[in-house]
Amino acid sequence: MFIDLCHTISEDMTYYPGTPPPSLKKFCTIEEEGYTELELVITTHTGTHIDAPAHIIPGGKTLDEYDISYFAGKAICLDCSSCKTITPEFLQKSQILSARVDFLILKTGWAKKWGKDEYFHDFPVLSEEAAQFVIKLGLRAVCMDTISADRVQDSTLPVHNTLLGAGTLIAENLNIPEDFPINNLVDLWIIPLKIANSDGSTIRAFAR
Questions:
Q1: How far apart, in whole angstroms, are the C-alpha atoms of residue 56 and residue 89?
Q2: Phi, psi (5° rounding) for residue 175?
Q3: In tens digits, what is the pLDDT along the chain, a chain of 208 residues?
Q4: CATH number where 127 lies
Q5: Rg, C-alpha atoms of the chain
Q6: Cβ atoms of residues 129 and 87 within 8 Å
Q7: Is 12 within a domain?
Q8: Cα distance between residue 122 and residue 110, in whole Å
Q9: Is the separation of the CB atoms in 133 and 208 below 8 Å?
Q10: Residues 63-69: contacts with CB within 8 Å, 24+ apart?
Q11: Domain membership of residue 100 as a residue range
Q12: 14: enclosing H helix or E strand
């Protein structure tokens, strides 16, 4: 069974405060031109997307420098809905240490708040110590169902800097369903668009 982990791209979708809203316009129509085509304007960090090191780190690696196989692999999902801050102790109690995985999925329950003002507030984030713990696991990416790996009000972006600085990618705004398998291995795909010099990209994220 395949599980879609993406929010739908639309003009009324949630987007990060201070960034331009997405725009979808009919460039032409079947009635006038004989075919229809949609013009899409969106930032590389709007909707379900992935951050490259170049997003934060000067001279950091861009997404187009990775082989496409890097974005597919084994993942494990942890239920972090009871956490205010995700600590190393919480991660140590999970099966992440014994599982051979490429990706860590953090399910906070915030996906159900998508489209509401509360989506931007009080979501669980990794502590800086937990981010350092994650780095030692050698994961390709950490994926989450929140607007950011850092709290919106934290302009220093400590978790972004820690993870991306070590080469661990970050996928944000996943649409994780309530019944997603917890503490079980799943196959995960988080496929970015092939954009030159890309600091990030919307992704087609899904699991099996």
A1: 27
A2: -100, 85
A3: 999 999 999 999 999 999 999 999 998 999 999 999 999 999 999 999 999 999 999 999 999 999 999 999 999 999 999 999 999 999 998 877 777 899 999 999 999 999 999 999 999 999 999 999 999 999 999 999 999 999 999 999 999 999 999 999 999 999 999 999 999 999 999 999 999 999 999 999 999 9
A4: 3.50.30.50
A5: 17
A6: yes
A7: no
A8: 10
A9: no
A10: 63/192, 63/195, 63/198, 63/199, 63/200, 63/201, 64/194, 64/195, 64/196, 64/197, 64/198, 68/191
A11: 3-7+44-207
A12: none
What is the residue whose two structure tokens read 């460039």? 27
Amino acid identity of 54? A
**Residue bearing tokens 């820690």:** 162
The answer to the question of residue 26 being in a domain is: no
Q: How many domains does one find in the chain?
A: 1
93-97 long-range contacts (CB < 8 A, ≥24 apart) are: 94/183, 95/183, 96/137, 97/137
Neighbours of 202 (CB within 10 A): 24
Whether the Cβ atoms of residue 137 and residue 103 lie closer than 8 Å to each other: no
Q: What are phi and psi of 135, to 5 degrees?
A: -55, -40
**Rounded Cα–Cα distance for residues 113 and 188 (Å):** 23
Query: For residue 41, how many other CB atoms are within 10 A of its CB?
Result: 12
